[in-house]
Amino acid sequence: MTATESAKPTTAQTNGQTNGQSNGTHQIGRSVTRIDALEKVTGRAQYAADLFLPGMCYGVFKRSPHAHARIVSIDTSEAEKMPGVVAVITAMTLSKDMASVVEEEMHATRKVVSLFPNIGEKVKYEGAKVAAVAAVSREIAFEASERIKVEYEVLPPVTDVREAIKEGASQINEDSQPADALPDGPFAGHPIYNVAGQNHRAEGDVEAGFKAADRIFEDTYVIPRAHQTYIEPQTTVADCAPDGKVNVWTSTQGHFATRSNLANSLRIPASRINVHGMTIGGGFGAKFGGIVDTYCVLLAMKAHRPVKIVYTRAEEFLDARPAPGAVITVKTGVKNDGTIVARQAWALWDTGSGSGGCYATSRVKGVYKIEHFKLDAYDVNTNKPAPGAYRAPGAPQATFAGEAQINRIAHELRIDPVELRLRNMREGEQIAFKETLSAVAERAGWAQRTKGAHEGWGVAVGEWTNGAGPAGALVSVHEDGKARVFYGLMDITGTDTAMAQIAAEVLGIKYEDVTVSRGDTDSAPFGTASGGSVVTFSYGNAVKRAAEDARDRILELAAEHLEASVEDLEVSDGKVTVKGNPEASVTLAQLGQMSLRSRNGPIVGRGSFSSEPSATTIAAQIARVKLDPETGQLRLLGAYGSLDVGKSINPMACEGQMEGGLVQGFSWGMMEQMQWREDGRNWNPGLLDYRVPTSLDFPDLETVMVEQPTKNGPFGVKGIGEPPIAPGIAVISSAIADATGVWINEAPFTPERVLAAIKSKAS
Amino acid sequence: MSQSADGLHGAGHTAEGPAPPAAVEQLHAVRLMVNGAAHTLALEPRHTLLDTLRADLELTGTKKVCDMGDCGACTVLVDGRAMYSCLLLAIECQGREITTIEGLARDGELDPVQRAFVEADAFQCGFCTPGQIMSLRALLNETAAPSEADIMRAVTGNLCRCGAYVNILKAGRRAAELAAAPREAGSPGETLPAGEAR
Predict the structure, then answer these.
(1) Which of A166, A332, A478, B65 has the fewest CB atoms inside 10 Å of its own CB, making it the most exposed?
(2) pTM
């Protein structure tokens, strides 16, 4: 297939030889060893739970066993009497402790909620926090929490959004007003109850569009809530000094975000809080603070001792912030030649006791030129935990609805699904949709594909555009000629390495000669949180500018020393040389030493970035599956992903993101679902029952990168962490349909569902 | 999934310390051989090997994730074999040789499995990495020339949520090569960092 000159598919060099060996001057576009490799393979990396402070106590929560209940009374007296208990907090103690709310700021959602329900208020999901206890040991804290007596008036729960919107359903948030009835769609004609948010959009005239269409398709897709399942649990250690200074060591994607949330919750100035971002063991959107840190600080304030809280895996499933589920109906009108003329969507997002899902419904439109588009979407309350961001929040759900139906349309019209997409895709400056899809089709051998019995091929694309946020960085060059990057970036995976490469590139030194250090919030310049695929785009610009600033100083010093003008100098291989005269040179080490005695002092470059728009990108993926007709078990025979990365700084790390996102997207389609019983109790709060993939599920996968640079990204970088999760569910559903002839519209496609599909086809 | 007395799922499982009852049980002198060093500790019999390693011996490279044998993050070697340290009591490990991730590198040189993980970029967040490495170390202890299926099976009990499985399997193959071949001089990432991590 064709690829334009500016958007060439490239393959990462990931063999052992390229690792850590940089010998040219180009430090970007190289697969170098991760900067944190040694500390991670030796067990030295310090995660939050690895911190043990002298005198440290342990915090645990008292949680509601009911999904929906009103608090009648809370009696903590027995717990407080227990030897070893140092602090007990409930809604009743909080006015004295100043805090009454906690904010969770994520790139997708922002909420203000009560820390605990007060007497007469409600718990809205199983596992909701009612009180917290700190004690000298975990065992004592747990025993004390058991001795807290809570009396509940149990209320009927509601767990299905399609029931929750009906008149007469339990009202979860009592101040919520029903939304006006819609004139059309699957829930037309009735007011919509338990609404926590709305999103409506209309472009063109869908009625006219449907009239102009040759064929109309309408399908309803159901996506379960999925848990980010970061392997490291939510963890915080907090300590409050006698002078009021609060120190927090935590697992967070953004320590400045954590600081501002804490300041807002505790109503104290941000400068009184110092947040130390520890090495993070996965977040995927779910670690922006609020889940344990505020409680930990309140306990530490009350106990006058350091307190540590580490979530158990069961607590993760009961009371973290998993992705929202959704029920999405899509209606699409097409011409017989495959031209999409109109699309309409109605969506109910399962946002538990909170909100934040329906905003993503516009992704149902996909990457296609569609003149007439309309959507009506609602966040609906159920008796489940509030939602949080999960890698490209809302995109996998909405993309499943949009892309699964594109595949069905292609099947019905007997048009190749890759071809149908290429015919309808948007084009534009800095966009490489067609090249990206073509690249994966070529890699997978799509055009020549063959299949055996019970085998099928599936394809889908998912769009995402990275965000941007404020970031500062300092780059200093020392008297040994080596450089250091200093900033407030939380490296969720591989970005410190990319930043070292960027600084090295600008300074004309080897990547190995750059070290990176992350400051706590007291020391580092402000940096946005690592979410929304913002990091390499935003911090990359800041680091590039800081390195350029340092390079200006280097050139100024060299010009003086070499008695040349700055314009005649070049920086490479660790030295500054007069162009055309290799004899006239001075090393960065010499310049670093000279700088200490120079008029302007040591070499410290500063760089800051606020926000500039990026350009959109897609991940395109293909799966080849084989089904066991006896058991319904699905096995991946091949998985292929492509992504327009703009410009790859470290191809090996880009591949890692493409693979990781693909695995998470596919597994949402293959096995992942949080389940609740009718009484609102969580059905599978553990890693045995909530299935995530093992090495057996993804033995191999192939990726191919496309590079269509964006104007505002450093060297053309686009944010790439999130997009690869988007198409997964749709890819798997279409592969199953290709194998069975049945479209399963409810994810995940478990053996039971696949078997039922095979049987329904046979009968 | 078990339920505790008040009916709340799994509430009895604490992430940093063993489950109730709270009353302190009688302490026992427990002698453990960890990474070649002998330690005598006064422990309650209910203390898991995992908690003992992390809290008492400050060997925090071994990670606690599920505390019930579902994830493999706490994998250590016991007499050379891969075991979940959350499912062992410290007291039953007396007289057995325990190796943790901190004990793999010898004389400042990484174990071939660790070198292979660096070379193959076999991790992202790194939280499951010590467990993955210990599982593959155990495999190489058992067989010098593991098959593809052996490697895949060796890490099936180690969940990696970042989805780095392709590279973990690659690292398994590379580790077998490295272990079999004499060490290549000057290969990257072969020595422990001196001072600051870079």
Answers:
(1) A166
(2) 0.94
